[in-house]
Amino acid sequence: MAALCHLNDIDAVSLAYQRVQKVDCTSPRPVLILGPLLDAVKDMLVKESPGKFCRCPLEVMKASQQAIERGVKDCLFIDYKRRSGHFDVTTVASIKEITEKDCHCLLDIAPHAIERLHSIHIYPIVIFIRYKNTKQIKEQKDPIFLRDKVTQKHSKEQFETAQKIEQEYSKYFTALNLPLNADGNSIISVVATATVFVLFFLTLLS
Fold it and tell me: Which of 38, 59, 154, 181 is the least crowded, having the fewest Cβ atoms under 10 Å away?
């Protein structure tokens, strides 16, 4: 079975093989996109394919840190983010509610939470977007999904964070997207299209 798809473009696919365990999924698997400018990619997927992709809603909870961590331990919550006066929580119930509607749930979780999903037999498709350098991130623009210019500081931070994620969590990646110079076209559009291709490709393998 192919464990990792490297997508240089929509037509060229090379596969790296390793021993994996086949998992039968009766509903669409959640999708976790990692890497720079991922929100723009997710926005495009939802806009372009609303019947196929849906963002996982974050539940606003006013509770203690201890209560939230207990929910994680009890496998009710997958991940959370502390906000001013509350927590934004990704719950198991929210993920299942979307997948039961025959839709891919676009997750908003940290990569370390993938293990928690596996522990409750939820196996997300993990797509990592690898940019060549900081300059390539900074040059990205899209008239609809990325209107604001990416600053040098922000692009540098995103590039460095992405490098750490790839180093620590690459074993979980289902697909690795390598953006090319898009010759005036938004790489965000290329990545979004490639994501749809990955899901189609995995359907053929199942």
Answer: 181
pLDDT 10s digits, 97-146: 999 999 999 999 999 999 999 999 999 999 888 888 998 888 887 777 87
Instruction: Report d(CA 206, CA 194) in Å as an integer.
Output: 18
**Could you tell me whether strands 77-83 and 13-17 are parallel, antiparallel, or unpaired per DSSP bridges?**
unpaired
Which tokens go with 75?
């496998």
Which residue from 107, 102, 104 is spatially nearest to 91, judged by alpha carbons?
107
Query: What's the token pair of residue 122?
Result: 């939820």
Q: Which of 48, 96, 56, 55 shows the shortest CA–CA distance to 196?
A: 48
- DSSP secondary-structure letter at 150? P
The helix or strand, by DSSP H or E, that contains position 7, with its residue range, turns out to be strand 2-7
Who contacts 49 (Cβ-Cβ below 8 Å, separation ≥6)?
196
